[in-house]
Amino acid sequence: MASPARPVVALVTDAILPYHRGGKEVRYREVARRLAQRADVHVYTMNWWRGANTRRVDGVTLHAISPMIPLYSGERRSVRQAVVFAAGCLRLLANRFDVIEADHMPYLQLFVLRLVASLRRKRLVVTWNECWGRDYWRRYLGRPGVVGWWLERIAMRLPDHIVAASDETARRLREDVPERIGVSAAPNGVDLELIARTPAAAQPSDVIAVGRMLGHKRFDLLIEALGILRDQGDPLFCRIVGDGPERDALHRLARERGVRHLIEFHHDVADPAELYGLLKASRAFAFPSEREGFGIAALEALACGLPVVVTSAPDNLARELVSRAAAGVVCEPAAEALAGALRGVLSTPTPAEPEAWIREFDWSSVTNHVWDVLVAEPRRRARRSPDFAADHV
Hints:
This protein is an alpha/beta fold. The chain has helices at 23-35, 79-88, 108-120, 133-141, 145-155, 167-176, 192-197, 219-231, 247-256, 272-280, 296-303, 318-322, 335-346, 363-384; strands at residues 8-12, 40-47, 54-57, 60-67, 72-73, 76-77, 99-103, 123-128, 161-164, 182-185, 205-210, 238-241, 263-266, 282-287, 291-292, 308-311, 315-316, 328-331. The two termini are 18 Å apart.
């Protein structure tokens, strides 16, 4: 019996590594190169690089389908970027694929991809990293936030299947999407093999924080906490790893609070091994973000054996992950509470090795779930039902 043809998977995301770093970018890199062992994988993104519009990296073919436009205008996502990238997705009509897998942000491209998938009679699967909801949209945009909320709700109804980046995101999605749309959870992962063989960086630190320098990441809360600890005679040396629109404001706040000499900013860490080395050289990880769909940086810190402090902000789903850890602490989203939590974990001995449950989050396990949704389950359905369209995967 002939084996099934090698499927062609179209991954659509506006931002990719190494040109832009964040949780979703790490996820797409790790999943794409593992999927490429079993499928022809094509990533459709903005034109982040110079030269030809198509290039091949780690067995994956990258396609530039729109010009590179900054993702953010100030602290908010750029509407222009969303519109231009969505229009660029029409180019998939001219390309061969068996299934589309797309990142949910910034929503507008999902409407175009639904059209493309329907015209080509293919499935549209969307990875949903976080659900914002009405209240957060109002905080984000003010009164016009109701438009964003309705856009999000409509976009939820466009895919054939949604893969949520956490169990809590999956639960929220199931409350709003029709039953005909499958929803499953495949959390973000971590490269345990690379972490195991990466040594600690030469210079130690007391606290480290990692993430895009955006308002909702609340690095300002960490800087205030460091100021409180310094005022109480407990100065801590902290590394903050990341870049973004809030970069200058955070440097300014550190100077104003009198703790600039206690903070080492790293704005250009692109190599995962370098990041893991910095994590291993620290004694604790601070994650004060008020909004996370999962919190991949917190998972990486736990996998490096660090105690992790997160806040109980309602939309910070990293708290669900960290609460599983023996050395994990969830505190109130206030500078005083963060300072107290950091003092507490630094005064308590913690094991240097990650806990056994972290193995659940190896990237290979995540990729297996994505493969099952994109390819394996549709093939099983095709074998069971002669009415299932032959041109599905």
